[in-house]
Amino acid sequence: MKNRIFLIILVFLFFSGCVGISSKGIFGTGVSVAFDPRSLGTQIDDSVMQKNLAARLTIRDKIYLLSVNTKVLDGRIFLTGKVEDPEEKLQITKLAWETKGVRSVRNDITIKEDFNFKQSAKDLLITSQLRTALMFNKQIKATNYQIDTYKKKIFIYGISLTADERKEVIKEAKEILDVEDVIASIVLVEDLRIQKN
User: Fold this and answer.
1) Looking at the domain 2-111, which fold is it?
2) Long-range residue pairs from 31-38, CB within 8 A, at least 24 positions apart, any chain
3) Is the pTM here over 0.85, yes or no?
4) Which CATH number fits domain 117-191: 3.30.1340, 3.90.550, 3.30.110, 3.30.70?
5) 61-85 pLDDT, tens per residue?
């Protein structure tokens, strides 16, 4: 029992870090609360849900701390990463659905394969190229998007201010050389439950 309490406290301290929750935003340090179109209350709810799920995943199996990524936008949970077998993927999906306040779960977790340096390097290059393209495109608020690439498939998560911005993000992703597919989970600001005034 003492070990479990110690582990929970350790996980909490690890995830809370030195920076306050409200200044970190959904996409990590450097994204200001002022730039996030969600209300402060929604940002806090999403952050609490994300940390709760990450802690429960870590308690279930410590390897999930590094192998599974969670993102929460307006009560929608997005899962990415790699696991050993399909049953683990289903268990993680079930755990995500059990999170208090969840509206939907998108599971893009893949099953592990042998490490391929060439493929990993190509995926990293694709991610970097898209991140750069988004930053230099004046019609896109690049800080509102999270990008993951796996086997030349780009997964984009984020909040778009307009439908045109969402189309522009997808267009930029499709223009990158060697991209096989673009899976966009982009929420429009107008679709958020509670927006900033």
Assistant:
1) Histidine-containing Protein; Chain: A; (3.30.1340)
2) 31/143, 35/141, 35/143, 35/144, 36/144, 36/159, 36/196, 37/144, 37/159, 37/161, 37/189, 37/192, 37/195, 37/196, 38/73, 38/74, 38/159, 38/192, 38/194, 38/195, 38/196
3) no
4) 3.30.1340
5) 898 888 999 999 988 999 999 898 8
